[in-house]
Task: inverse folding
């Protein structure tokens, strides 16, 4: 397999795992009404979208040189990496809107112990993704894999924060959900 094919394979595996994590987070988030989980679910949608952008960028970058691109199309990988950053800013805005709605409607999430366990499970999926993608990014010298792994690394902190907010909400501290959702925005923007 060529370098581009290997990178695409890694991104496709990560895409499937991100879709799984996204579905789980959104189901738990909408079932419980926990804003931090919904925000994390939207963040995971962006993870999946960034994998799709990465796959498309790599497909374009792997094309051979032509008259208009005598040195090849490899720079498209960098453009795809920048697109991932732009998508992160979009999800930040979505979360801020959710925080505003929560503050104005004064709703409280309904959290069960199973919801907490499920969200904790997504941490271990993301941990495996970070480890695998970082190893592959270094081995293949791929900026896009390393950038995506760094992005997913922030998901680990987000997931821990979300689990803490769910535990707090379970004990009647619903305001922690809003604070954690705001912290998610700060981490994403950073």
Result:
């Amino acid at each position: 397999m060529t370098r581009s094919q290997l990178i695409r394979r890694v991104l496709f595996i990560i895409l499937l795992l991100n879709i799984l994590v996204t579905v789980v987070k959104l189901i738990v988030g909408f079932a419980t009404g926990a804003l931090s989980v919904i925000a994390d679910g939207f963040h995971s949608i962006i993870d999946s979208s960034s994998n799709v952008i990465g796959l498309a960028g790599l497909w374009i970058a792997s094309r051979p040189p032509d008259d208009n691109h005598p040195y090849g199309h490899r720079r498209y990988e960098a453009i795809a990496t920048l697109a991932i950053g732009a998508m992160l800013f979009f999800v930040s805005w979505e979360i801020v809107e959710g925080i505003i709605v929560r503050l104005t409607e004064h709703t409280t999430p309904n959290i069960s112990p199973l919801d907490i366990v499920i969200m904790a499970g997504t941490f271990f999926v993301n941990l495996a993704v970070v480890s695998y993608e970082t190893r592959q990014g270094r081995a293949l010298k791929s900026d896009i894999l390393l950038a995506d792994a760094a992005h997913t690394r922030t998901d680990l902190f987000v997931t821990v924060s979300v689990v803490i907010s769910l535990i707090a909400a379970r004990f009647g501290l619903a305001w922690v959900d809003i604070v954690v959702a705001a912290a998610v925005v700060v981490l994403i923007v950073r």
